[in-house]
Amino acid sequence: MTFRWRKWDGSPHWANEGVYLGADQWGDWVGQPVGWRSRRPGREFTAEGPNVTLIPHPSAETGAADFALTVNRRHPKGVRIYIDLGWDVRWGPDADAVETELPVHATGIDMDLDVVRVDGERGTWVDDRDEWAEHLVQYRYPADVIAHLEALALDLEHRVRAQVPPFDAATGDVWLDALEALGLDRDPGR
Quick check: 188 pLDDT over 60? Predict the structure, then answer.
């Protein structure tokens, strides 16, 4: 499957290869084994360590989620948690998918702000505030979206620091173990 992100104006952003792992009380989990690709216009890389992404259960109000939580194991830069704040994060086909790509099962609008936790001194922070400020003007985000996501970023930063589930090690590790048990790693040269 592919998890495809786009920007507010509909332009393509990241497309991540993955495998559906299952669901728990927090939502659905997708894994990306070592050697599987992520790409966006002008950039591509393969996963150097396994990672799993939580697509939270949809909000009753919007029918979609507003973030995706990725938990890494053996990330080369020590990134343990990376949360993409988003809009309209949901399951379903993407009309922009092309025939040569894997079927798209999850999509979302990347809203610039991220919450990152790194093992080590740097800790946890809200990232890409400069990109957020630039895109507020460029894409003319609605005021209610701005207010919601700015508050959500601070709330998520607090919950990641406190390691409240699912932002703790144990929750993500269950899914990382399940991913590695599948044995789907591939040679990054493929």
Answer: no
Specify the range with the lowest mean pLDDT, choosing from 25-29, 57-61, 156-160.
57-61
Q: What is the CA radius of gyration of the chain?
A: 16
Neighbours of 34 (CB within 10 A): 19
* Cα gap 85→75, rounded to integer Å: 20
Please tell me the total number of residues recorded for the chain in this structure.
190
What pLDDT, in 10s, does the model give residues 127-136? 999 999 999 9
Domain at 2-177: CATH code: 2.40.380.10
Residue 31 and residue 172: Cα distance in Å, rounded? 11
> What distance in Å separates the CA atoms of residue 107 and residue 86, rounded to the nearest whole number?
10
Q: Domain residues of the chain, as ranges?
A: 2-177
